[in-house]
Specification:
Length: 305
């Protein structure tokens, strides 16, 4: 396993902690603000990253300005190039490899920056489907770790406006940044809607959403839609971009993260509530997914339970 850097939360210029890993362009005209108050809930940098794997407690919006690379995730490696953008969940391990002249705009933000009611929100899916807001995003749409391409340049224009607001610090700039950031998140959610999954795949996803904590098998799911296990497995992978097993595991792990941050349930109780009767196995899967144990996940988020 590659070494993971858990970056400091006490000062939000986190990528400058080790200048050998990330560096800021010398001619970059924008400043990094103080991390106190509202400013501390959103930070923007233009970076030429290098390939080290790290994690932090902030949501991360990245827009690729130039170059190419492979973005490393816990269970995948995704190619990115100029015009691509994506959003990462907090405490998810990520990094880069095979970098070729890569330059990105990086926006780090806490969920309460979008709305105070979202404090401790564990994932971008939970943020976009929160009923106190009016995003209206269906619960089966997840933009986390998916790479979107800015076909018409509209997202780049929004990001450029964000950079200008962040640099000028004019009256109301933090509210303007909030509005622009919301626009980008909605663009990503809409991009997920452009392709409607196969009816049978949608049925399986809906079933998993309501039964993820139960013992499940490919045979059970295939009987649900009347396909052979082999055909359903192939169809699901082609439509969703990941296997049923990975999809289910991500769903369980996302719910586990939510429970670790929002409840006082023990690790064993959380394991059971998301479909794992063996706590040791749950911790092993969780550690593979987040690169840290459930207890360390709570501790990294500043929660001692």
């Amino acid at each position: 396993m590659m070494p993971i850097t858990i970056v400091s939360h006490t000062f939000m210029r986190i990528y400058l902690k080790n200048e050998g890993d990330f560096k800021m362009e010398k001619n970059y005209p924008f400043v990094t603000h103080d991390s106190s108050g509202e400013d501390g809930k959103l930070q923007m940098l233009r970076l030429t990253p290098k390939g080290f794997t790290h994690q932090h407690k902030y949501f991360e919006l990245v827009y690729v300005l130039r170059g190419t690379a492979k973005r490393k995730l816990t269970d995948a490696s995704i190619s990115v190039s100029a015009g691509d953008y994506y959003v990462a969940n907090p405490l998810s391990a990520h990094g880069y490899e095979d970098l070729q002249d890569l330059e990105v705009v990086n926006c780090l933000f806490l969920p309460e920056y979008i709305d105070r009611a979202l404090a401790d929100c564990p994932s971008i899916s939970a943020l976009l489907t929160n009923r106190t807001l009016r995003f209206g995003v269906p619960v089966d749409i997840s933009i986390a770790d998916r790479v979107f391409h800015d076909t018409d340049g509209s997202v780049r224009r929004i990001v450029r406006n964000m950079e200008r607001e962040y640099a000028d610090c004019r009256t109301g700039y933090m509210e303007m940044l909030r509005c622009y950031l919301t626009q980008v998140l909605v663009h990503a959610a809409r991009a997920c809607e452009t392709r409607v999954p196969h009816e049978s795949v949608t049925k399986v996803m809906e079933y998993l959403k309501h039964h993820y904590a139960e013992p499940l098998s490919l045979n059970t799911l295939s009987q649900l839609v009347g396909y052979t296990p082999q055909y359903l497995s192939s169809l699901f992978s082609n439509e969703v971009g990941m296997s049923i097993q990975v999809f289910l595991q991500r769903m369980r792990m996302e719910e586990a993260c939510k429970l670790l941050l929002s409840t006082e349930l023990s690790v064993a109780e959380i394991a059971s509530s998301v479909g794992y009767q063996d706590t040791r196995h749950f911790s092993k899967v969780f550690s593979r997914y987040q690169t840290i144990s459930p207890k360390e996940y709570r501790k990294a988020a500043g929660i001692n339970k």
